[in-house]
Fold each of these.
Amino acid sequence: MLNIILSGAPGSGKGTQSGFIVEQYGVQHLSTGDVLRAEIKSGSELGKKIDAIISKGNLVPDDMMYGVIENYIAHLPKDCKGTIFDGYPRTVAQAESLTELLRKYNMDAIMIDLMVDEQLLIQRLIDRGKISGRADDNLNTIRHRIAVYHNQTEPITEYYLHEGTYFAVNGNHSMEDVFKQVKRIIDRELVARSK
Ligand code: ADP
């Protein structure tokens, strides 16, 4: 069992790398962004509230996210090989909650951080905006999301460094080259855990 927190700024390639990891290791993938977008699509009252937050590029409150994660972890299948947490945690408070929740079920996680230069992030997100139709993929919101990332999410680096479960990857390369680095980290971790 290996849980992987895939972190990085918007546009850092979390979704792409998650797909590669799922294919290679047969783990589950939880994208909190996807969960929230599905709620918006359902047209519920909650979805409307979430839409107002996400389209401005802000973070959904921690307590709202906690319910999503708690529910997910409580319903994991017994034979689960692990989960990629894509887009969670995004604040130190979320990181603390996740550690606690995982511990409750005798689990832990490693954190893989996709590091990408800001200019490249912006370019990728503008390109994605042309096809994604996502309300938050426009230049003003992109800039705001990157600022939110620096202010609210980046501090989790310290948290995982302190936990001793932090691994950085240079995400400026091609998807395949980034995956090679990710794979090296996961393989090393799996070997260490099998001992
Ligand atoms: P990206 O990483 O490209 O910004 P995501 O799909 O991961 O895209 O997230 C889109 C938006 O969903 C975020 O900007 C935020 O508003 C909301 N969101 C996703 N995950 C979380 C979270 N863990 N906590 C708070 N808000 C979140």
Amino acid sequence: MSKILGIESSCDETAAAVYDSHIGILSNVLFSQIELHKCFGGVMPEIASRSHLEKIRSIVATALSNANTTLDEIDAIAVTHKPGLPGSLLVGLSFAKAIAWSKKKQLIGVNHLEGHVYSACLEHQIPFPFICLTASGGHTAIYLVESFDSYQLIGQTLDDAAGEAFDKIAKLMNFPYPGGPIIERMAAEVNFQDFMHYPRSMANSLDFSFSGLKTAVLYDLVKRDAYNLKTKTFTKDCDIILKQQVSSSLLVCISDIFKQKLAFAFKNYKNVKAVAFVGGVACNKYINKQLKEFCNQNDKLFFSPSPQYCTDNGAMIAFIGYHRARKENNHIAKFDEQSLSLDID
Ligand code: KG4
Ligand code: ZN
């Protein structure tokens, strides 16, 4: 039996968790900085790293106490070291290094995206090979996942991420950050209908492009006299129907784009048994339901993590840490000072 402490601080969430190789997740604690960044319409790197610094100690302490354990009982420490905001990554990594050194525990660097790729495996037994669609504020990509040791990137966004499209288009309409949840609430008011028919491009590719969608929405708003390009202002703030219709059309469009990509992936990777939909955008119930139905029609199993494991979290980092540090007979590698040379990437 092994216990791994996972630490995550790559963007705007300070998170820690304890994963037990027999029992599963023992604790998962998080401080979200959303309120600190709301007024800026996006994450402010300097504010993010300062906040991580203030919170990291208490978040890790709470993760240990919620798991009813202590640092002495932990077998290894896994920490996100790439990719992310440098100032944010540095806080988690420096903290992890300090406790790894003082308690002589093995330190394991985890790629944040790899954490998301396997996040649905925290709660579900997913048959390999599976397709993982990762959609968050910073990344949108498709992976072919062959085992816990092997996965490959088969498509990704060429510009903005899907979550970024929600956030930027929400900002155009004066909605606060993050845009995804409010766009979903607005769309529900008009029954998820497609009013605007925004373009769905690149159907025969596994790559995405969401910046063109943002431009299409912007120019459609300009055409409707709802956005002034010179002053960069939304001029129909009181027009709730317009906001609902734009939100709903955007949501249906992004959901359709995801379905198109999965269809293309099924064509190219015929032996795939299942799909995992992960990342912050996977919190969206409408898209989740649409993709589940689509997978059922195509004889594929569909999995998505619970919301707390869709967004950034320490549990997925601890889980990857366990799989990376696992040696023969599932024993965790012993402390080796070399592991402390880990850097951000
Ligand atoms: O995974 P995450 O917490 O952080 C990153 O690693 O980026 O994802 C945050 C993104 C934001 O862009 C947010 O708008 C989006 O996830 N998001 C949603 C929903 N909840 C969060 N997008 C669509 N619908 C939602 N319900
Ligand atoms: Zn993430």
